């Protein structure tokens, strides 16, 4: 019996798909990894290139410590409010029985708004509720309500919190929506069959499952707010004492600037945001394990 199967030719090599990663790898190396390493090394060097800890000791300056505390407080407040409002909106859309057509536009807007920051966002808020903004002038002219006399000032810490919420809330919606989708209907039905109320279901089943996602998203929102500079600088200038503005003042080349102290400031920011992002990744892995 003869073999009629076609003869096997030389084995063809599969195309090197990993080459597609080269542009991303080169971009990350040139604009992320190498600058970060330069910052880390520069934090422990003098202008002459000798090793020193004086730059890190300079972080004990009261003005710098105050800037760190203000930045941490800004990150905590905007992350907490962003998580609360964003979770409420996402839960209303995913689980609240709202029309399904609302979800698409909401997620599309959230994707755009979460990346809308910097000078355009600062200008938008100044033109709307700034000292001579559209709403500010309308309220003062037509209703006799002066926001400044009521204690609101956009060019302040509270004004910056309000501005940051424009991208913090949409970011929370984008991240928490898949976690809410992962809540299985069977869990709700089983809780109802066992006599649990809606509040008991959320307290004993849903929130414990979602807790890693919520805490991880809080950490991510904190890091997102802590490291933002363009919006804060465009909105308040040097008036607000936060770390990114303090860092910008040290490295921009003024007479009183100290680039290596700026490296130390940036090194402190890398440590804080690195811990926050590491916590987010770890908690996200734990939450995905539950929701599979």
UniProtKB/TrEMBL annotation:
Positions of transmembrane segments: 66-95, 116-139, 159-180, 201-222, 228-249, 261-283
InterPro entries associated with the record: MetI-like, MetI-like_sf
Keyword tags: Cell membrane, Membrane, Transmembrane, Transmembrane helix, Transport
Principal location class: membrane
Superkingdom of origin: Bacteria
Keyword Ligase belongs to the record: no
GO CC, one annotated term: plasma membrane
Location of the ABC transmembrane type-1 domain: 68-280
Topology class, membrane: Multi-pass membrane protein
Any one GO biological process: transmembrane transport
Pfam families in alphabetical order: BPD_transp_1
Subcellular localization(s) per the UniProt record: Cell membrane
Stated family: Belongs to the binding-protein-dependent transport system permease family. CysTW subfamily.
PANTHER family xrefs: INNER MEMBRANE ABC TRANSPORTER PERMEASE PROTEIN YDCU-RELATED, INNER MEMBRANE ABC TRANSPORTER PERMEASE PROTEIN YDCU-RELATED-RELATED
Name assigned to this protein: Putative transmembrane component of ABC transporter
